[in-house]
């Protein structure tokens, strides 16, 4: 997959997520239950945490020639997600939104800084277990944002929001 396609897919997922939250009031963004016990704000904080880990990984690939980055070493995803929730739950909505937009810019920049071989050669990063690095981007950003966009749409539909 070309780098431009990776970025295009990422931006399409982001557009879908922005559409899913479009028109929500601050009160609705803070309403518990959008995804499990999480509010929309909590979902955005969750996405920020994962995408920040991804940006860190992509920006420091030279450190991961021999060892895997944290993002692929997380053994208990539920525990990690719970920890990130506890870190972010008290953070104000405007700060979460600022981070949400900021991390996306950093992610696109980190992808743009990589060459096609780094992103697509499935032999470059042994810790990717046969997948190209672009899979890590898709899994932790593109598909992840689309998954939660769908969750938020369903929540809105079920609650008439």
Mean pLDDT: 95
The helix/strand order is HHHHHHHH
DSSP summary, beta strand count: 0
Characterize the overall form: globular
Question: What Rg, in angstroms, do the CA atoms define?
Answer: 16 Å
Task: Report the portion of residues in β strands.
Answer: under 5%
Structural class: mainly alpha
The percent range for helix content is 55-70%
The oligomeric status of these chains comes to single chain
Low-pLDDT residue spans: none
- The end-to-end distance, rounded to whole angstroms, is 37 Å
Q: What summary fits the major beta sheet? A: none
Can you count the helices? Answer: 8
Task: Describe the 3D structure.
With 161 residues, this protein is mainly alpha-helical. Helix content is 69%, strand content 0%. The protein is built from eight helices and no strands. The radius of gyration is 16 Å and the shape is globular. The chain starts with a helix and ends with a helix.
């Amino acid at each position: 997959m070309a780098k431009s396609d990776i970025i295009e897919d990422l931006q399409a997922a982001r557009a879908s997520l922005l559409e899913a939250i479009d028109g929500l009031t601050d009160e609705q963004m803070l309403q518990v239950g959008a995804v499990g016990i999480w509010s929309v704000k909590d979902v955005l904080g969750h996405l920020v945490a994962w995408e920040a880990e991804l940006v860190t990984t992509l920006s420091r690939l030279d450190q991961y020639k021999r060892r895997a980055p944290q993002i692929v070493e997380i053994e208990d995803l539920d525990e990690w997600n719970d920890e990130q929730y506890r870190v972010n739950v008290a953070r104000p909505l405007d700060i979460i939104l600022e981070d949400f937009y900021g991390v996306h810019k950093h992610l696109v920049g980190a992808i743009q800084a990589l060459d096609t071989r780094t992103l697509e050669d499935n032999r470059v990063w042994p810790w990717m277990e046969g997948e190209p690095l672009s899979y890590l981007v898709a899994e932790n950003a593109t598909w992840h944002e689309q998954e939660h966009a769908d969750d938020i749409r369903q929540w809105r539909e079920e609650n008439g929001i």
